């Protein structure tokens, strides 16, 4: 954190307990020490040390942080949200590592797995020794996962999986994947060790967004799994969708981190940069940009805290998470773009984080349900009519 200027116009910190603020401070320091000094380089090279970061994050209890047992920290939803915000103030890709590990892969096993699955995988995943990924999206089926082409069929007691999963975060480095496939009974989840014969993972190259994140394709070619690879309690598409709700909740908070870092950077820059004989921060048009950005940032924060408190009370609904994801990512992207203009030509340089945040937020707008899909979720709630198909 470089600036001393306050962004907390509404004193929203007063909404937090001492414990929440202490957790936030730990994650902020860790991002300052381990992410900020290196992330521009990771981003430019398109390579991120996933395993090293996972061990660092595990050291402060960030992996599966909001889960209980199996070495997980059992934090509140609000504390988890604050951690996501601080991580994404470093980089959306770094936050994605934690989201996919904890909210998608670990949560799926924690919620729907057998005792054997949990004992086998969760302690190692919480410790950062095992990297997990979550394979739902396919090359031809993204927003409409119900149409997935990946199939699991019985062969005696075994399962045979065939299909391709695409855009899977952490796939090229993962030890284990939660793979969603169509069976005779509907959609089921499978715990697939990545070294199982027939599983191959290829890294997706040439990304112009989320470059400090490892993304891959998983090909499943006649993958033979024992009967107990099936997640016994995951029945139908609502199981993977419930995992997505967990991850989307983290994004509600995380996107605010990218926006906050963009605003901090622009404020610092505008205070020092002079044109026409005075700091550009003193121009009314610049201040209008700052005011609008700060107002949206604080409104988004209030929304995140509200959803977090509802999650901690056990009453958070998926469509409420859609409201948060739609609003906070859309506004964070607008803030990052606007802050980018304040940096002028320097705004397009990797020496400053703002363009990186803006580029990352293009992915965040798309994954975990596109903005349009969240609009449709909210539209269905308001009208009672589903407009997806
Ligand atoms: P499509 O579904 O083809 O959508 C294209 C456009 O059409 C979008 O604007 C969409 O909103 C719009 N559209 C689609 N249907 C409708 C409709 N009914 N009405 C109006 N508009 C519509 N997936 C995983 O399973 N695991 C991961 O770990 C993962 N990580 C990712 C990491 C990155 C970097 C990226 C970019 C993606 C990742 N994804 C992952 C995939 C992501 O969830 C999908 O990209 C997303 O669901 C959208 O699917 P799609 O890209 O196929 O777009």
TrEMBL record:
A Pfam match: Acyl-CoA_dh_N
Domain Acyl-CoA oxidase/dehydrogenase middle: 133-223
Keywords: FAD, Flavoprotein, Oxidoreductase, Transit peptide
UniProt domain Acyl-CoA dehydrogenase/oxidase C-terminal: residue ranges: 235-382
Residue ranges of every copy of the Acyl-CoA dehydrogenase/oxidase N-terminal domain listed in the record: 17-129
Cofactors, names only: FAD
UniProt KW Transit peptide keyword: yes
UniProt cross-references to PANTHER family, sorted A to Z: GLUTARYL-COA DEHYDROGENASE, MITOCHONDRIAL
Family in the record: Belongs to the acyl-CoA dehydrogenase family.
Identification of the protein by name: Acyl-CoA dehydrogenase family protein
Species whose genome carries this gene: Dactylosporangium cerinum
């Amino acid at each position: 954190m470089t600036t001393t200027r306050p962004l907390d116009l509404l004193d929203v910190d007063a909404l937090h307990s001492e414990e929440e603020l202490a957790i936030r401070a730990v994650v902020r320091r860790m991002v300052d020490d381990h992410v900020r000094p290196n992330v521009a380089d990771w981003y430019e090279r398109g390579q991120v040390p996933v395993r090293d970061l996972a061990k660092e994050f595990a050291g402060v209890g960030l992996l599966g942080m909001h889960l209980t047992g199996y070495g997980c920290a059992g934090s509140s939803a609000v504390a988890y949200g604050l951690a996501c915000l601080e991580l994404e103030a470093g980089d959306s890709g770094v936050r994605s590592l934690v989201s996919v590990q904890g909210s998608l892969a670990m949560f799926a096993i924690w919620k729907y797995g057998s005792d054997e699955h949990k004992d086998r995988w969760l302690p190692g995943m919480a410790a950062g020794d095992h990297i997990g990924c979550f394979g739902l999206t396919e090359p031809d089926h993204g927003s409409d996962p119900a149409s997935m082409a990946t199939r699991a069929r019985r062969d005696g007691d075994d399962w045979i999986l065939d299909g391709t999963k695409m855009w899977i975060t952490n796939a090229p480095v993962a030890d284990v994947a939660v793979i969603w496939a169509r069976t005779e009974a509907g959609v089921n989840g499978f715990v697939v060790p990545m070294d199982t014969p027939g599983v191959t993972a290829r890294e997706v190259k040439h990304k112009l967004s989320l470059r400090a994140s490892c993304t891959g394709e998983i090909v499943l070619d006649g993958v033979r799994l024992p009967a107990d690879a099936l997640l016994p309690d995951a029945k139908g598409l609502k199981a993977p969708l419930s995992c997505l709700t967990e991850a989307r909740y983290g994004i509600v908070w995380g996107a605010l981190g990218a926006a906050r870092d963009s605003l901090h950077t622009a404020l610092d820059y505008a205070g020092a940069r002079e044109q026409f004989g005075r700091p550009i921060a003193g121009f009314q048009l610049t201040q209008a940009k700052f005011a609008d950005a700060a107002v949206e940032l604080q409104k988004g924060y209030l929304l995140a805290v509200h959803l977090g408190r509802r999650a901690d009370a056990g009453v958070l609904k998926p469509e409420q998470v859609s409201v948060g994801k739609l609003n906070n990512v859309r506004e964070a992207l607008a803030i990052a773009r606007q802050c980018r203009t304040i940096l002028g030509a320097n705004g397009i340089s990797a020496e400053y984080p703002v363009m990186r945040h803006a580029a990352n937020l293009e992915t965040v707008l798309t994954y975990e349900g596109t903005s349009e899909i969240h609009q449709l979720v909210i539209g269905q709630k308001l009208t009672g009519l589903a407009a997806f198909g």
